[in-house]
Write a structure and sequence with these properties.
It is a single chain. The protein has 16 helices and no strands. By secondary structure, it is mostly helical. The longest helix is centred in the C-terminal third of the chain and has 38 residues. The two termini are 34 Å apart.
């Protein structure tokens, strides 16, 4: 009989791999393509890794905190839970926001700002700073994710955490009707995003950003219905964990052949863009079960120290890579502006297309990706050791000064993951 593990080491590397996939995706669509979308859509589909984070987060949070709320809501327990989430999420969110604001102040009154792509100029919206401070940047008041763009997912997950005790009380009831209702909600949420909210937002983006092309009928929505997107994935992750508790499908899903077969299916279907997003997200459920159950080749590969390292700093990877993208555009704008002699000539015009840069040779695009990835990992390592972890530990001790040496709700665990 398979016994449920208290610690699932394979989940830690998953978050590191997923974070790197988001980094590569942003390089592909915001800097320069490494893979021609007309040849393969593989990297261009990796926006969906944010949904993978939502599902994995629901799984892990349920694993760690389910028993705290399964017997009912208690304010002291909820307070400790939310303070623990705050200590894990907020310090790095605030630090990355301040970095973005600092870079903006450095260039706001220079010609360099005018060389930034339009999407970046829209994101550096001074009126959105307060909303970012209070994790309200995805409420729909702003047409685009503002400042540190990846933080949109942090904001919606923060508010999803506030609903977690309610979700637990509903999903752990004996009546299966509640679980079926959750499944219907998940499917309905993703279908409404794909066929209503995302096309509507795309039409607006075409009008004010002049986008030439973009995928339709996807879940790639960050403002407005982004909260629904998070809740759908989070609920799915909770249901996956409840299945994991009962060893559901263990005899099939524990096989390495099943794990690698599903991974291959993702690669092929994303490459040819033949799998609807809702199907990919629903398949994340068995994929997480396969990783959690596996004791064979999959577990051995994910136990490599390099993958564990990436998992440990995954939140920093996710949150710090966008400021690096802004630094790239600042340097690019400085070089181009200097070449055009516009840094000293206030009346000169910018005569280069900042939104449609010429594609560099493939070798140069790949070299740039390697440099960008290495810079991101190095910056994330520093961020983890000098911002994320020290501030998390400080707040942990601040919130629980009398219980620092025992396991409690504010103690960070390796299960914890943030998209």
């Amino acid at each position: 009989m398979y016994m449920r593990q208290n610690y699932i080491p394979s989940l830690t590397p998953l978050r590191g791999i997923a974070a790197l996939m988001v980094v590569i995706y942003h390089y592909q669509v915001l800097i320069t393509p490494v893979v021609d979308p007309e040849q393969s859509f593989l990297i261009n589909k990796w926006y969906i890794m944010v949904d993978f984070f939502f599902v994995l987060s629901g799984f892990i949070i349920t694993h760690v905190y389910q028993k705290k709320f399964s017997n009912g809501f208690q304010w002291p327990t909820f307070k400790k839970f939310m303070l623990a989430r705050f200590a894990r999420l907020y310090p790095l969110h605030l630090a990355s926001l301040l970095i973005m604001v600092g870079l903006f102040l450095f260039i706001k009154n220079t010609a360099i700002f005018d060389t930034l792509p339009h999407f970046l100029q829209l994101s550096l919206d001074s009126s959105a700073i307060i909303a970012n401070v209070f994790l309200l940047q995805t409420t729909g008041f702003f047409p685009e994710p503002t400042w540190n763009t990846p933080s949109w997912s942090i904001s919606v997950e923060w508010w999803t955490y506030a609903l977690f005790p309610l979700f637990i009380l509903i999903l752990t009831r004996k009546r299966q009707l509640f679980k079926y209702g959750a499944i219907l909600f998940i499917i309905g949420a993703y279908l409404s995003i794909m066929f209503y909210f995302q096309p509507a937002q795309f039409a607006e983006r075409v009008s004010y950003m002049g986008l030439r092309s973009e995928l339709l009928n996807t879940v790639d929505v960050m403002v407005g219905s982004g909260f629904m997107r998070c809740i759908g994935g989070f609920l799915l992750g909770m249901l996956v964990y409840l299945a994991f508790e009962k060893n559901w499908g263990h005899s099939w899903f524990s096989r390495s052949s099943a794990l690698f077969g599903l991974a291959f299916l993702f690669i092929v279907s994303w490459s040819f863009n033949i799998m609807p997003d809702i199907v990919s997200i629903l398949l994340f459920a068995p994929f997480i079960l396969m990783v959690a159950y596996n004791n064979g080749l999959g577990k051995k590969m994910l136990s490599f120290k390099s993958f564990q390292f990436l998992g440990d700093i995954s939140y920093s990877i996710y949150m710090i890579h966008f400021p690096i993208i802004l630094c790239y555009y600042i340097l690019r704008g400085y070089w181009k502006a200097a070449d055009a002699n516009i840094l000293t000539d206030a009346n000169a015009s910018i005569d280069f297309a900042v939104n449609t840069p010429a594609a560099p040779p493939l070798w140069l695009a790949i070299t740039g990706l390697l440099v960008f990835t290495i810079a991101t990992i190095f910056a994330a390592y520093l961020s983890y050791n000098y911002i994320e972890k020290p501030m998390r530990d400080f707040l942990k001790n601040k919130f629980n000064p009398t219980n620092n040496k025992t396991k409690n709700l504010s103690r960070p665990t390796r299960y914890e993951i943030k998209p």
